Amino acid sequence: MNYTGNARATRGIEFSTQPFDISHRETVDAHEMFGAPTYQWLPARSTMRTRFLIFYSSVPAGFTGVSDVAVENGQVRITDQSGKVLALSARRGL
User: Fold this and answer.
1) Nearest CA-CA partner of 1 in 80, 18, 64, 16
2) What pLDDT is attached to residue 81?
3) 59: Cβ contacts below 8 Å, ≥ 6 apart
4) Which of 10, 16, 19, 78 is deepest in the core (most CB within 10 A)?
5) Measured between alpha carbons, how far is 68 from 59 in angstroms, rounded to an integer?
6) pLDDT digits (tens, 9 = 90+) for 45-57
C-alpha cells in the first residue's frame, strides 16, 4: 500500500496493480485517471492482458505543462497547455 517512511523499507515499481501510490480503497473510490479506469474486477480463474508504455523526456524551454499524451503513428506525442507538441519516436513497436 503506502510507503511508511521506515528507513528499512524498500520501494519499487509494481506494474498492473494500481497506477499510483495510494491505498486500494482510494483507488476504487477514484474510478478513473486520465480517462482510464483505475481498477478492474477480475473473476476467479480469469486472465487479462495489459500493455504498458513507459517513457521519459526532457522538454523544451517554455513548455507550459502537459495537457495530453497520445500514441499516434509510432510516436508518443506530448502536448503542452499552449498547444505545442513534442513528438518522441518509439524504439519498439507500440
Assistant:
1) 18
2) 92
3) 78, 80, 86
4) 78
5) 14
6) 888 887 777 788 8
Rama region for 43: left / alpha / beta (φ>0; ψ in -120 to 50; rest): beta
Q: Which residues contact 23 (CB under 8 A, 6 or more apart)?
A: 1, 2
Rounded distance between C-alpha atoms, residue 69 and residue 59, angstroms? 13
> CA-to-CA distance for 74 and 94, rounded, in angstroms?
6
pTM given for the model: 0.51
CA distance 92 to 78: 18
Query: Residue 30 belongs to what H/E stretch?
Result: helix 24-30
In sequence order, the β-bridge partners of residue 86 are: 78
Through-space distance between the first and last CA atoms of the chain, rounded to whole angstroms: 30
Q: Which three cell numbers stand for residue 94?
A: 507500440
Contact 94, 53 (CB under 8 A): yes
